[in-house]
Amino acid sequence: MTPVESVILLPSQVRFVGPALAFIRSLAASCRFSPTALNEIEVAAEEALTNVIKHAFEGSADETFRLSVAFTESEFSITIAEKGMPFSPALIAEFSPEKLQDTLESDGLGVYLMKRMMDEVRFENLGREGKSLTLVKRFRDNQTEAVAGNSANYLLVRERPHPPAQDSAFEVRPFRPEDALEISRCAYKAYGYTYEPYIYYPEQIVEMNRSGRLRSFVACEKGSGAILGHIALKFKNGSDIIAELGVAFVKPEFRKSGVFNLMNLQAIRNAAESGLYGFFVRAVTSHIASQKMAEAVGLQTCGVMLGLFPDDVDFKSLTGRIRQKESGLTLYRPFMAGQKRSIYPPDRHKEKILELFRTFAIPVHCEEGSPPDAGKTRIEAATVPALNIAELDLLSAGPDVARELQATVREFCLKRTDALFINIDLEAPCCPFVVQQCEQLGFFFAGILPFGLNSRHTLILQYMNNLAINYDIIKPYAAISQALLGYVRSCDSNREAD
Predict the structure, then answer these.
(1) ∠ CA 76-77-79 to the nearest 5 degrees?
(2) Which pLDDT score is estimated for 324?
(3) What pLDDT does residue 102 have?
(4) Which has the closest alpha carbon to 279: 265, 258, 259?
């Protein structure tokens, strides 16, 4: 069986000894100890807890210590870890009942009782982390099977098993406020608690749909109406003419049913019919299937975002837990090209930027830029805690832009943010100057996003905060993605020599 451990943090106050003993006894009883063994465990634990409160902390009621109760297939253990007064068990006088009877001297009685009641007592000096005391009670032969069998959970209400869904068995419809709680549950089943925070607050899902920042769609089982999955178009501002397609997840048992594809097509159809100029998605570079699916619906890569996804995302049964900081692709699909716009690309990246715009058949005209000579710099920063990244929107640039950029980078570096991505207005004449200032700080090329920043063409740069990137393990699927990754790699001055 898998070892089981429960941990609580206790204040150094005698009033908490009773509740802690009840907690310990209850768990011990679940392991089928005899009444005599339960009493022995409780006596030993009471001695240990009381000693910590009275002696380790010298009676102070303002400290805390850690109580852990654990069991394996062979033993039950109690561990108390604290940062109280240093202590050496070797200096404790050895207690003997005869000495107590003759002199009433009880030194060492507590340790004597613990050793008498338990099968093993271990003291450990942890240095700067304090010290720990572990009490062990081993299982008897008749307990082992019972303990292992008692570790399963039995639900009072079970979800009925779902047969594999067929296209005719479900439908995709727009969001309704009453869907919000089930969407949160669906996200949990797909990703645990590793997704963006708002998805676990039903009231926030409702509000974001009401305000237009989200345009959600759900897949429902026909007949029962049970929600099987969710997808949404995300908007930074209500006036945006492109959207990000994302917040997509399906209950694990329906992942191979076609639900995801149908939700995807419905959201794309809605984006086109509502007059958007296009939409973009972000895909994990290690998940080739999602890249192939993106290519199948007309998306093409416009950016390579290094260190975008966290190293602790739990994809549940999809791919398992990701243990290395993941890079991502930004992929864009246009619905409308719009009229030709003037852009001000930096000379260094001009050809690559034009190549990307040609990929999407979006007409642009290049002009020479100039440094800002008036106004104040405005940088709007949005952190994404789930990804440990920050997205910076450069809304305006003044002569103070270098100073403001440096202060912003320093702020996020001190917060240990893994990666920064800055969106720069390609239609602003100061763009080349701003890019030069950014690159002097350590930013480098990431890509473009048509109509991305306040509906204007956008250049994206990225900054890695002491984040090691192994380019050799990034394996994008499409040729355009591989070529863009090579260009990004060539721009990264922090990379190891090839």
Answers:
(1) 165
(2) 52
(3) 46
(4) 265
Q: Report CA 244 to chain centroid distance, whole Å.
A: 20
pLDDT at 103: 41
- What is the pTM assigned to this prediction? 0.72
Strands 389-396 and 419-425: parallel
Residue whose token pair is 């994302």 = 246
* List of domains in the chain: 4-149 (3.30.565.10), 170-276 (3.40.630.30), 341-491 (3.40.630.30)
Confidence at residue 310, expressed as pLDDT on a 0 to 100 scale: 64
Q: List C-alpha distances in Å: 403 to 370, 372, 374, 389.
A: 18, 13, 15, 21
The pLDDT tens digits for 212-247 are 999 999 999 988 899 999 999 999 988 899 999 999
CA-based radius of gyration for the chain: 30
Distance CA(468)–CA(153), nearest Å, equals 42
Phi then psi for 378, rounded to 5 degrees?
Answer: -125, 120
pLDDT at 47 > cutoff 80: yes
Beta bridge partners of 300: 332
Among the listed ranges 33-37, 119-123, 297-301, 471-475, which one has the minimum average pLDDT value? 471-475
What average pLDDT does this structure show over 52-79?
Answer: 91
- 397-421: b (≥16 Cβ within 10 Å) or e: bbeebbebbeebbeebeeeebbbbb
